[in-house]
Design brief:
Helices cover 21% and strands 43% of the residues. By secondary structure, it is an alpha+beta fold.
Length: 164
């Protein structure tokens, strides 16, 4: 009788746990050393339109691996400032391979509620486990018009002491 109770208890435990086994996130956080480098793109760190200015000061990266698909995912946290809160700012994050070719890109609109902001962009797939794209680097910046980009390039060249 005692053996039958053990089997019944075991069967009951397994049957109650079975629905839970398929649940849960398939994302595992990747060790920081295995994450690609992340940088704010110096020619896309400043945004200006209609008297409103915004600046990106810092980007931090947290990486995940999807254990079901072997996708490598990046979550980028940015910190910056804007001269007027509530303004819609277009941001992008892009993964570049070792040849500086874009292998993945995401673009979002943010509207910071405070002039100094810190927020996370949605996770995006930047590569596959054990693939060449796993060695990607990630760059972050504002999505700029050609005029804004040219103004940023001139500003950066001036900072470097280069001529126009």
């Amino acid at each position: 009788m005692r053996g039958k109770n053990k089997i019944t208890f075991f069967a009951l435990s397994v049957s109650l746990m079975a629905p839970l086994m398929g649940c849960g996130a398939s994302l595992d956080k990747v060790v920081e050393d295995q994450c690609p480098r992340v940088d704010v793109l110096v020619t896309a760190d400043s945004w200006q339109q209609g008297g409103v200015t915004a600046q990106l000061q810092l980007a931090q990266l947290t990486c995940f691996i999807d254990s079901k698909t072997d996708d490598l995912l990046a979550e980028v946290k940015v910190r910056g400032s804007v001269s007027q809160n509530g303004v819609s700012l277009p941001l992008f994050a892009a993964a570049l391979n070792t040849k500086d070719e874009i292998v993945a890109r995401t673009q979002v609109e943010i509207s910071p509620s405070e002039t100094d902001y810190s927020l996370s962009l949605p996770k995006f797939v930047y590569g596959q486990k054990a693939a060449e794209t796993a060695k990607a680097r990630v760059v972050v910046g504002f999505v700029l018009t050609p005029e804004q980009l040219e103004a940023n390039r001139r500003r950066f060249a001036k900072q470097l002491g280069l001529r126009d």
